[in-house]
Amino acid sequence: MGRHTSTQGSPLLWVGAEPAQAVSLVRDGLDMGVRVLVLQNTDKAREALATGDFLAEVYSESLSFNVVVSLVQWSLRASMDPIRVRALISSEDSSALRLRAMTGGLDLVYRFPLDNRWLLEDLLNVVELRRKRVVKVLLLESDRLLREHLLATLPVGGLRLLTVESPETLIRQLDEYHPDVILLDPDMTAYSPSLLSRALRSNPAWRVIPIVVLTALDDHEERIAAFGAGCDDFIMKPVSAAELRTRLRRHAARADARKGQLRFSSNKQQTT
Which domains can be identified in the chain, with CATH numbers? Predict the structure, then answer.
């Protein structure tokens, strides 16, 4: 197993490991070039999640599922980092658990028991893949100045942007461009966010693509209608390019989980 030199600055947080396993995890992590912070107390875990910059979070099956979801939701509110991986270790192997884990905000599920070093290596590989991931964004934007601004700023964060000026062109490009995220700015069109979301969700092939609306209009009823039609997020203008990049990458990462990145890993030893 190689050392992941690009990951040495940030630790990996492990919540709920037994004392003997904790010692082994810290030692194995040091051998692999990654620091592992092991916590048993959930209050201390919340404090760490609120302030720490972690590569990944791992939750042991010694914690109840509701506690895990509570901590994950706390983490998601504290950090929108699209690179961070959140994983559960469980002896249960069922599609129902995977669905509950995904819904609760987890990215990966590993089956217990398993080898510590193999698990750490797999987590680091997922982190590195996410860092290298190019997110394809299909943008509906009829405002020329804003379109040019987004074309100049969003690709800095590993995003590839294709812009269209009308909903009709957007629909035509979906099957050709295969975007990871759809970004809609309907403020200058005759279509509402809810209508656009409903049209996009009408095709089964497009139902897993996140829909993000960028708008200056704070219409509460329309926002509720859009969420009901399948919209995933509303971002109010003005918004910084850094925040927009982060939120788009986060939605793409969650979509990856929905499309199959969420998985159970067998406990068979794997060699490199």
Answer: 5-132 (3.40.50.2300), 135-255 (3.40.50.2300)
Token representation of residue 17? 């490991």
Length of the chain: 272
Give tens-digit pLDDT for 116-171: 888 888 888 888 877 888 899 999 998 888 888 888 888 766 788 999 999 999 99
Beta-sheet strand order (sheet of 233-236): 159-164, 135-141, 181-185, 211-215, 233-236
For residue 234, give the DSSP letter: E
| The two three-digit tokens of residue 182, written as one number | 């759809």
Q: How many CB atoms lie within 10 A of CB 175?
A: 10
Nearest-angstrom CA–CA distance, 61 and 191: 47
Instruction: State the amino acid at position 176 in one-letter form.
Output: E
Compute the distance between CA of residue 67 and CA of residue 73 in angstroms, rounded to an integer.
Answer: 10
- Residue given tokens 């809810």 in the structure block: 194
Cis check: omega of the bond before 167, within 30 degrees of 0: no
DSSP 8-state class, residue 36: E
CB atoms under 10 Å from CB of 188, counted, come to 11
Distance CA 114, CA 218 (A): 49
Name the nearest CA neighbour of 181 among 94, 248, 99: 248
Alpha carbon 213 to its chain centroid, in Å, reads 18
Cα separation of 250 and 158, whole Å?
12
| Lowest mean pLDDT across 4-8, 35-39, 230-234, 243-247 | 4-8
